[in-house]
Amino acid sequence: MIAIGCDHAGVEMKKEVIKALTDKGYELKDMGTDGEPCDYPNMAKAVCALVNSGECEKGILICGTGIGMSIAANKIKGIRAALCSDSFSAKYTRLHNDANIMCMGARTIGIGLACELAEIFLSTDFEGGRHQRRINLIADIENNN
Ligand code: RB5
């Protein structure tokens, strides 16, 4: 199960991403918003909670730039959120950072690219090895600051 959420800026993009991922066989849990103006940190919190609880394996967050969502999500312990606007980043943030949330900007990239990035992100596995040591160092920072 994949958690997804957006603020009012990301509603159209989120609908299309849900459609594209559903067509590929993914199941999604949509945490809103459906269109109501809202504050993006609340959506970030809801999606990250599903990922941290294990109910969802990964999450996708969309706001105008993707920046607010990524800042908010990365404040939550256990979350590694990556703002992506290109396919190399969407792939390598899984391979090297084991990112569990991908953020995108509805006002900065097109819907077709967003659907493609979501699919790359969800279908790429973490490489482990030396990268696990670096993830552990990130967790140390999280636990000691
Ligand atoms: C909402 O207008 C906008 O500020 C939000 O979607 C996002 O871009 C924040 O980072």
What is the domain total for the residues? 1
Number of strands: 5
Q: Using the 3D structure, state the CATH architecture.
A: 3-Layer(aba) Sandwich
* Average pLDDT number: 98
Which strands sit side by side, in order, in the main sheet?
2-1-3-5-4
Question: Structural class, from helix and strand content?
Answer: alpha/beta
Sheet with the most strands, sense and barrel status:
5 strands, parallel
| Gap from first CA to last CA | 31 Å
The number of distinct helices, counting runs of at least 4 residues, comes to: 6
Summarize the helices and strands and which ones pair or pack.
Layout: E1 2-6, H1 11-23, E2 28-30, H2 40-53, E3 58-63, H3 67-73, E4 81-83, H4 87-95, E5 101-105, H5 111-123, H6 130-144
Parallel strand pairs: 1-2, 1-3, 3-5, 4-5
The protein binds D-ribose.
Walkthrough of the structure:
It is a single chain. With 145 residues, the protein is an alpha/beta fold. Helix 2 packs across helix 3 (67-73). 49% of the residues lie in helices and 15% in strands. A 5-stranded parallel sheet has the order 2-1-3-5-4, with helices on both faces. It has one domain: 3-Layer(aba) Sandwich (Ribose 5-phosphate Isomerase B, Chain: A). It has 6 helices and 5 strands; from the N terminus they run E-H-E-H-E-H-E-H-E-H-H. The mean pLDDT is 98. Helix 1 links the parallel strand 1 and strand 2. Bound molecules: D-ribose (RB5). D-ribose (RB5) binds at residues 7, 9, 40, 63-65, 67-68. D-ribose (RB5) binds next to helix 3.
